[in-house]
Amino acid sequence: xxxxxxxxxxxxxxxxxxxxxxxxxxxxxxxxxxxxxxxxxxxxxxxxxxxxxxxxxxxxxxxxxxxxxxxxxxxxxxxxxxxxxxxxxxxxxxxxxxxxxxxxxxxxxxxxxxxxxxxxxxxxxxxxxxxxxxxxxxxxxxxxxxxxxxxxxxxxxxxxxxxxxxxxxxxxxxxxxxxxxxxxxxxxxxxxxxxxxxxxxxxxxxxxxxxxxxxxxxxxxxxxxxxxxxxxxxxxxxxxxxxxxxxxxxxxxxxxxxxxxxxxxxxxxxxxxxxxxxxxxxxxxxxxxxxxxxxxxxxxxxxxxxxxxxxxxxxxxxxxxxxxxxxxxxxxxxxxxxxxxxxxxxxxxxxxxxxxxxxxxxxxxxxxxxxxxxxxxxxxxxxxxx
Length: 386
Fold this sequence. Notes:
Helices cover 25% and strands 31% of the residues. The chain is an alpha+beta fold. The protein folds into three domains: 4-235, P-loop containing nucleotide triphosphate hydrolases (Rossmann fold, 3-Layer(aba) Sandwich), CATH 3.40.50.300; 242-294 and 362-378, CATH 2.40.50.100; 305-358, CATH 2.40.50.140. The strands form four sheets. It has a six-stranded mixed sheet with strand order 6-7-8-3-9-10, sandwiched between helices. It has a five-stranded antiparallel sheet with strand order 13-12-11-14-20. Strands 15-19-16-17-18 form a five-stranded antiparallel sheet, with no helix packed on it. A hairpin with a 6-residue loop joins β12 (256-259) and β13 (266-267). 36% of the residues are buried.
């Protein structure tokens, strides 16, 4: 069992610089949790506090119910994979992976047991043929597998990974991401993973912890944070390209709600309207959020359509990313190429052309203009530090 609990954990550096503010999280046994956020948000600092590589200024960290604040890293039952691999250049792959098993604290481990653990891990990771090589003879992806293998052989309860894929190129990142997903199914451990890449967070995590400026912004499953972001930061950070934000009015008309982006009139979906009504939301100015993939081409005559001037169009193969301007506001639209005619495609690819767009009432997100908080989630009891 490997449950990790962080209770009001805080990190303060010299000069009263607060890197992490009252971090509260309960990581369940065998759960894969991802810390994600921009550089400087405190995600790696939090991971290092779990590992025991950073002292805790305030609060408590428990592993399986035991307070480990003062426990040295070697006694916490954790294995860590670093961003820069941290391999010994003068040792072979086999010797790098076996290094921790040969330390004096493992005097009873036989050479046969060490050999078995290393070769079993190498087989899982597909690096058996490289066991006699030294790190300089390996590619970046192969070195990262060795670093993961070195952690695996310890058979630890908890795996901590600090941006392990950030030094790899795009193709290798995709490949290694898939391998980590498969690895997770083969070894029975708890994973805590740090990344700045929201794609890694969405594909790997059972739950995602989104951080900014040392605060937790939201904790939830990938579906939860994508479909119901708690605030504008989460909404803009999760999803690529980022969500469009439009200042407009949310209008209550008897039993229905409308929004009026760019002087159009779009009816809010009945399910969202029911939720707005249950919270007694009145007519007010809001910031409307709509994801690029939820905006569609429309006819000029539609009452819900608005004109958009094309500035740049990126051809991505299966889809177009159209960057446009609507009444001085920048907007991004993702349009699948299979859904448009050759004439429409030519128009979209022509800078300066005018297209007409719309979106349905099912795909809207409503944010308070002052607080930037989602008005449909701000009254819920969510595990988030504001």
